[in-house]
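During the second year of the project, the team shifted from modelling isolated chains to modelling whole assemblies. The rationale, set out in the original proposal, was that interfaces cannot be judged from single-chain predictions alone. As a representative example for this report, we include one of the complexes processed in the last quarter. Its constituent sequences, exactly as entered into the pipeline, are reproduced here:
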Amino acid sequence: MTALTPDALVHVALIEVALFGVLAVLALAARERAEFRRSRSVRRIGHLQDGLVSGSARAVHAFGRLPRSQQPGAAAMLARNLSGAERRRIAGWAETSGLLGRAERWSASRRWHRRLRGVRLFTALAVGADQVLPRLADGDARVRVAATQLAVELAQELGDAELERLTGLLGDRDPGVRFAAGDALCRLAQRAVRPIADVLADPAAGGPLLRSALQVAVVVVDPAYLSSALRLSAHPDPDVRRGAVPVLSHLGGGEASSRLAVLLDDVDAGVRAASAEGLGRLGRWQSAAALGRGLRDPSWDVRRASGLALLRLFEPGELVLLRALHDHDKFAADMARLALSSRDGHV
Amino acid sequence: MNPLHGILPFAVHQFGLLVIGYFVVVNLFTALLLVAATRNLRRFVLADKDEPRSRLLGSDVAPRISVLAPAYNEEATVVQSVTALLTLRYPRLEVVVVNDGSPDGTLEGLRTAFQLEPAPVVFRSRTRTAPVRGVYRSATTPNLVVVDKENGGKADALNAGLDLCSGELVCAIDADTLVEPDALLRMVRPFLSSPDLLAAGGTIRVVNDSVVRHGRVVQARTPRSFLAGVQTVEYLRAFLFGRLGWNSLGGNLVVSGAFGLFDREAVLQAGGYLHGTVGEDIELVARLRATAGPGSRHRIHFVADPVAWTEVPESLRVLGRQRDRWHRGLTDVLRRYRGSILNPREGALGLVVYPYFLFVELLAPAIEAVGLVGFAVGLAFGAVQPQFALAFFLFAYGFSTLLSAYAVLLDQITFPRGARRQDVALQLLWTLLEPLGYRQVTVYWRLRGLVRQLRGNTQDWGVMTRRGFSGLETPDDRPTAQAL
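Output from the structure prediction step:
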C-alpha cells in the first residue's frame, strides 16, 4: 500500500493518458495507411492490369514503382484473375522485375511465414515447380497446404514423383494437409486416378492414408479402384470399410452390389448404413430382400437407410416396405411406415 | 471515545486493500489476455497474408455446413434474411429456416418467395422439440429447407433444425444477424486442421448506423448515439482480445448464439440446446466441453476474422434487460457446472477458465458495487483520503481506456474495413466515455441479473425491441444520411 500513494497513482495515470494518446495516434495512422494503400493499389492495379497483360513497358515501369511490400500481393491479385498466356506474361514480368527471385528466397527462408508467402506467390503465378514442390515436405503444415495448391495449378507438368508425393500427403500427420491434398487430387481429376489406385492397392498403407484416398476415390471414380475397394471393404478398421462402401456403390456392377449386400451384416453400424444407402443408389431390385432385413437392424440409422433405399427400388422395394408394415418387429414396421409416409408426402 | 472510530478506518483500510488486490489481479489477467490475443493475431495475420480465399469454393471434399436460422414472427424481413444467407460463399451449404410456430405470415412469405414444396424426410428426433408440422424444400433453391413447427422457443427451434439438417457442421445464427459473405469460408478453417474441435466462434460487430444493402453491410460506421457507440467499444474489446486471448489460455467458454459453428454430431450427443435457460449458447458450450470430458475432444476456438453484424439496443430499458439476461445465463451455467470450478481434472478449463468466469465475469458487478459503496463510506467517514480516491479513479479510468484504445488499434491494423477517419475518431471518443457512467450502470444491471437468478427467476427473456434491418437498409438509388 505504501507504493499506492496518491502522487504515484497520478503519475501512473498521466503515463496512461500519454499512452492513450500514442495509441489513438497509431490507430488513426493505421487507418490512414490502410486506406492509402487500398485506394492506391486499387487505382494502380486497375490501370495496370491491361498494360501488364499486353506487356506495355510503361505499365511494367509503373508497377515497379509500387512499394516493394505491395508488389507480391498486387502481382498475385492480378495473376489469380487470369489464365493461360496472360498469366504466363505476368509471371514473365515478375521474373524480369526480380519478384520471382524474392519469392525464391522467401521459399527457402527459415521463417515459416516467409516460406508461406513465397509459395503463395509462386502458386498465384502458376510457376516455380522446382522451388515449391519440395515444400510438400516442409516442416510447417501451412506451407505444405500452400504447396498442394501449386500442384493443382501445374497439373500438366506434374511428374509421377510429384504425384506420389502429393498422394503421400493424404496420410500426413496434420488433418489440414490431408484435406488440402485430397482437395488437390480431386481437382486433378483423371490425373489422380493412378496414384490413388496405387495407394488403395498398397497393403502397407495405413488407416488415415486409406481413408483420405477413399474420399478422393468417391469423387474421382474409376473402375481401377474396384479390386482394391472390394479388398478394403473387409479391412479391420471400420472407418476404412465405411470409406470403401461409397466407392463400391459409385462403381456399381454385380461384384460391388453383392459385396454391399454382404456388408449389410457388418459388425459396424456405420458400415451397414452406408451399405444400405449404396444399395439404394445402385437401384438393383435384387437387393430388396437384403434391405428388408436391414429394416430389422438394431441401429436406427441402418433401418432408416434401408427404408429409404427400398423406396429407391420402386415397386420391388415398396412391396417389401408394405409387407414390413405387418412385421413382428415393431421397429421394422415403424420404419416401413415412416418411409412410406415420406413417399406419400407426410413428415 | 467511540470504539467505532478506531475500527471503521481499520475495516475500510482492509477492505480497500481487498478491492485494490482484486482490481490488480483482474487487470493483470486482462493484460495477459491482451498479450495472448496479440500473439494470436500476429500469427493469424502472417498466415492469412495473400491467402486465396476462394480455395475452398468448388471443393468436393469440404465439410457440409447447415446454417440454422430460427424465425418467429419475421414476416417483414424473413425473405430478405434468407436470401442473404443463401448467397453466403461456401461450396456445400444448406440453409435450414425453422419457423417456430409464427402466427404471422412468415411461412407464407417463404413459401411464395422460394416456391416451397413439401419434402417429407425420415428423421430421428434426438433432441427434445415441439412437434414438427411440415418440412419444405425450395423448388428454385434446392439447398433451402424450411421446417415448420409448433412454437417452443429459440432453443427448441434450433434443436429441430439440428435433428433435420444434413450438415456435418452447423452454424447457428440469430434471425437479426447479418453474416459477411465469406464468413463461413473463414470460420471452417480451424475445423479442417483440428479434428478435435467442437465449436468455433466468430466476431460480432455492431451494425447500428452502418450502411446495409440487400442484407449486407456495405459500409461499416461507428454509431453516433452514446449507447450504441459505447457498446461498439465493448464488443471490440470483448471479441478482439477477450475471446481471442482465450484461445491460448484454456479455450473459450462462450460462442455467441448470434453466430457460431458447431460439430453437429457433438452437439447432438450432448443433447442439443437446453430448454429453460436464458443463456443457451454459453450453456451449450459448457455442456459440450463437459460431455467431451477431460483429455478428449474439447476445443472451442475463436476465429477473429469471420464477422457477423448485430443490432445493439439503443434504449437503456432494452439494454438493461439484455445485460440482466446475459448475467442470469452466466449465473445459471456456473451453477450447473460448479463441479468443474477449480477441478484439476478439467485442466486449464477447471483451473483457469471457470475461475475467471466466476470471479471476474460473474462476481465483478458485486465486487465493483461493494467497492464503490465502500469508497463512498470511506470518504464519508474520512477513512479514505479524497486525493487517494481521485487518484485511484484516474488510474483505473486510464487503464480501462488504454485497453479499449489498444483494441481499436489492433482492429485498425489487422482488419481495416475502409473505416472513415471520423469513425475511428468516434470510436476513440467512445473509449473515453465508456468507463464514465455506462460501465457503472451495467454493474447495476448485471447485479440485478445475479440477484434475480439467485432468487429463482431463470427463464424471463424480457422483450427485446429492435429497429430491425429493414430500418437500417439503405436503398441503392440514394445516398445514405451518413454518407452526406
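The mean pLDDT of chain A is 89. Chain A has 20 helices and no strands.
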